[in-house]
């Protein structure tokens, strides 16, 4: 019989299966080609799909009390395993049981202690490292007499790296460097490495962001072959490329993006119908240019997403595509994949179409200008965009309908402002702005959500192998913890099942009130991280049974995959059995890769903002600010200023008493005075210290100064 990975796993996962030796497994599966079988089995063992026990018998990890996943290390020395299987719970791992594993390594963990009914997490120890995530690290060089070290920037890398710079490496004590690991850590032994790049002194211009780029393994340049492929495309759409596409170049449409956006993925159009609206969402046909298996495709898969650092963009695709032929620039013919949605006055979809098109955007508009038109009725802008003002107003009407419908079904309404650091030409921070979503941003958000849902529903109905954007329901105990916290803000107790509708009711009730941000943050922290999966597990936050990412293929690889599958079906009517099987086999791995790349990008983006924020705030050391307590920990509490900047008030600076952390109520209480600090309290603080390198901002309450 033909043998493959899925066949072997299906056999081993049978309830009656007991671990078998190599020869026994070969006989029971009637394997004739031993070389092929041995190679498949070896690869499966290497990747952690199967395990070989001490008696040289093969089995699957889940039936041998072993869990496979990615390690999330805490700077305090312990770690959690995030299992590959979404149905598995996280596993707590003590530092002594890491056995040389490092942050973000893919590992196999043996469960030593099962989860109890009291809610304690199961515990385990690392028994095998499948793959290493940190081939290179960024850190600070510390020169020693006999041996020198590199102290990693990331506190989740628990070990200093022993290094002996070569005679050609000129590095000074305290400089930022990139070190390549040559010897991995063991239980009682630090890793060793070789310095491969000196970034410079920590205060040198540009070293801060370059360190982040290197720390997270981001790519600043594209491979030569990728650039050659990108450069081979015409700068304009050719007539032969338009064949077989619907010509929508006469349909009025616009793009609406941020002022500085250059990679324009989506355009929108709207026609009023007798019984509702005809919404057009037109997305750049990136799959037409980025063909499966090409150099462009391989590098896009490796990057996974564009990364938007505070001072630069590291695009998923070369600028010739991302800002050029793929970008829906106004006045230019462009290839697109169009979703047409006929929507009734209540926001329900009456009919939809998905097809290949050629479009020409009429105007490139910005959120700022559209907000001025819709809210302020700016006369100058309304005259400049007079051909589109009526359509914009009707778009706003439809967006309000869609938003109301979404929240009525239980979608969660988190309304967090974004912190934007403004830099000068030298990359120095000169201002911090707190930006909230306005009507224009909401308009585009609603249209993109609706298009994504329509495409997801379509893919599910056709049983297409693709990647869905899934957001699973939070753990019940996490939600109950939040409900208990609400009593601190005099919120009524919640009885019965905690549903998305109940949560959204809470969010709506506190909107505009002083406690809004605190309660919203508590609820958000109880949520699971959204991820990419080939399974239709639904999206809890959007209260949507089927959801995926389709609308940003220039900057997200999952969207490109969706386009690729759709394009195959649109062109050929269906998928061949071979193609369907290949994509079905590929999607789980792609989902894990894309999810991890997204997490990495988010961490890098957040750190770049934090460092520039710290640089900006350093000039205000000694100044006093009004603030609100945003979170409580065992070592103090964090406060948020009016501009959104957060910093720590350490427990040691509270001088009037010994304060005890109550985890059940999330408060700090004075042992003798019974004085309480809790989230939402308004306080006055003085900025006392800023550590730019670690992006740490420290405050003290003025009453103790």
Structural notes for this entry:
The termini are far apart. The protein has a five-stranded mixed beta barrel. Strand 28 (636-641) and strand 29 (646-650) form a beta hairpin. 30% of the residues lie in helices and 28% in strands. The mean pLDDT is 90. It is built from 16 helices and 34 strands. It is an alpha+beta fold and 705 residues long. The radius of gyration is 28 Å and the shape is globular. It folds into six domains: 5-62, Winged helix-like DNA-binding domain superfamily/Winged helix DNA-binding domain (Arc Repressor Mutant, subunit A, Orthogonal Bundle), CATH 1.10.10.10; 65-131, OB fold (Dihydrolipoamide Acetyltransferase, E2P) (Beta Barrel); 136-204, OB fold (Dihydrolipoamide Acetyltransferase, E2P) (Beta Barrel), CATH 2.40.50; 224-472 and 532-609, no CATH class; 476-527; 621-704, Nucleic acid-binding proteins (OB fold (Dihydrolipoamide Acetyltransferase, E2P)), CATH 2.40.50.
Number of strands: 34
Radius of gyration: 28 Å
Q: First CA to last CA: what distance?
A: 79 Å
Mean of pLDDT: 90
Looking across the biggest beta sheet, what order are the strands in?
Answer: 4-5-6-8-7
Largest sheet: 5 strands, mixed, barrel
State which percent range the strand residues make up: 25-35%
Please give the share of residues in helix.
25-40%
Q: What is the number of helical segments per DSSP (H or I, 4+ residues)?
A: 16
Q: Classify the secondary structure makeup into a structural class.
A: alpha+beta
- Assign an overall shape: globular
Stretches where pLDDT is under 50 for at least 5 consecutive residues are none
Number of domains: 6
């Amino acid at each position: 019989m033909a043998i493959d990975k899925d066949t072997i796993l299906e056999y081993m996962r049978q309830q009656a299966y007991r671990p078998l030796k190599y020869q026994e497994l070969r006989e029971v599966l009637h394997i004739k080609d031993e070389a092929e079988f041995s190679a498949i089995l070896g690869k499966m063992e290497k990747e952690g799909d199967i395990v070989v026990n001490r008696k040289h018998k093969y089995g699957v990890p889940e039936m041998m009390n072993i869990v496979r996943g990615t390690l999330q290390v805490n700077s305090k020395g312990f770690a959690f395993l995030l299992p590959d299987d979404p149905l598995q719970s996280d596993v707590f791992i003590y530092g002594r049981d890491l056995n040389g594993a490092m942050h973000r390594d893919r590992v196999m963990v043996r469960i030593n202690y099962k989860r109890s009914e009291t809610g304690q997490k199961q515990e385990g120890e690392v028994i095998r490292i499948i793959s290493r995530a940190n081939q290179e690290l960024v850190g600070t060089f510390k020169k020693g007499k006999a041996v020198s070290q590199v102290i990693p920037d990331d506190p989740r890398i628990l070990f200093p790296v022993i290094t002996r710079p070569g005679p050609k490496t000129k590095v000074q004590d305290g400089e930022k460097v990139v070190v390549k690991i040559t010897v991995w850590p063991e239980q009682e032994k630090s890793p060793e490495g070789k310095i491969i790049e000196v970034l410079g002194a920590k205060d040198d211009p540009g070293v801060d962001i370059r360190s982040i780029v290197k720390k997270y393994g981001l790519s600043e340049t594209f491979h030569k072959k990728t650039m050659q492929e990108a450069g081979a495309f015409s700068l304009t759409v050719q007539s032969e490329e338009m064949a077989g596409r619907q010509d929508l170049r006469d349909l009025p449409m616009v793009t609406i993006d941020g002022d500085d956006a250059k990679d324009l993925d989506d355009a929108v159009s709207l026609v009023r119908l007798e019984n509702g609206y005809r919404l057009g969402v037109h997305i750049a046909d990136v799959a037409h240019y980025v063909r499966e298996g090409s150099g462009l495709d391989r590098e896009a898969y490796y990057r996974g997403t564009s990364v938007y650092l505070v001072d630069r963009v590291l695009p998923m695709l070369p600028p010739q595509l991302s800002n050029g032929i793929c970008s829906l620039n106004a006045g230019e013919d462009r290839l697109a994949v169009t979703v047409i949605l006929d929507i009734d006055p209540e926001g329900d979809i009456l009919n939809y179409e998905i097809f290949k098109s050629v479009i020409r955007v009429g105007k490139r508009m910005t959120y700022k200008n559209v907000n001025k038109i819709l809210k302020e009725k700016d006369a100058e802008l309304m005259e400049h965009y007079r051909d589109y003002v009526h359509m914009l107003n009707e778009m706003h009407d439809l967006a309000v309908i869609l938003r109301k419908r979404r929240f009525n079904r239980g979608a969660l309404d988190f309304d967090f402002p974004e912190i934007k650091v403004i830099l000068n030409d030298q990359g120095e921070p000169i201002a911090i702005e707190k930006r909230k979503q306005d009507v224009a941003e909401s308009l585009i958000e609603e249209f993109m959500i609706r298009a994504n849902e329509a495409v997801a529903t379509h893919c599910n109905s056709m049983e297409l192998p693709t990647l869905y954007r899934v957001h699973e329901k939070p753990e019940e105990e996490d939600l109950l913890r939040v409900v208990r916290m609400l009593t601190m803000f005099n919120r009524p107790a919640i009885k019965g099942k905690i549903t998305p509708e109940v949560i959204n009711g809470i969010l709506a009730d506190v909107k505009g009130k002083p406690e809004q941000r605190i309660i919203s943050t508590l609820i958000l922290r109880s949520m699971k991280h959204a991820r990419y999966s080939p399974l239709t597990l639904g999206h809890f936050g959007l209260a949507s049974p089927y959801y995926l990412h389709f609308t940003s293929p220039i900057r997200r690889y999952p969207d490109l995959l969706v386009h690729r599958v759709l394009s195959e079906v649109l062109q050929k009517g269906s998928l061949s059995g071979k193609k369907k099987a290949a994509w079905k086999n590929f999607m789980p791995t792609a989902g894990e890769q894309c999810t991890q790349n997204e997490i990495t990008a988010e961490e890098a983006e957040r750190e770049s903002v934090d460092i520039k924020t710290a640089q900006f705030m350093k000039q205000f050391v000694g100044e006093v600010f009004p603030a609100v307590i945003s979170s409580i920990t065992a070592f103090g509490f964090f406060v948020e200023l009016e501009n959104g900047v957060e910093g720590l008030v350490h427990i040691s600076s509270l001088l009037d008493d010994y304060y005890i952390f109550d985890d059940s109520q999330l408060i700090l209480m004075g042992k003798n005075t019974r004085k309480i600090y809790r989230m939402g309290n308004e306080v006055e603080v003085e900025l006392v210290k800023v550590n730019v390198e670690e992006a740490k901002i420290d405050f003290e309450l003025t009453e103790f100064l």
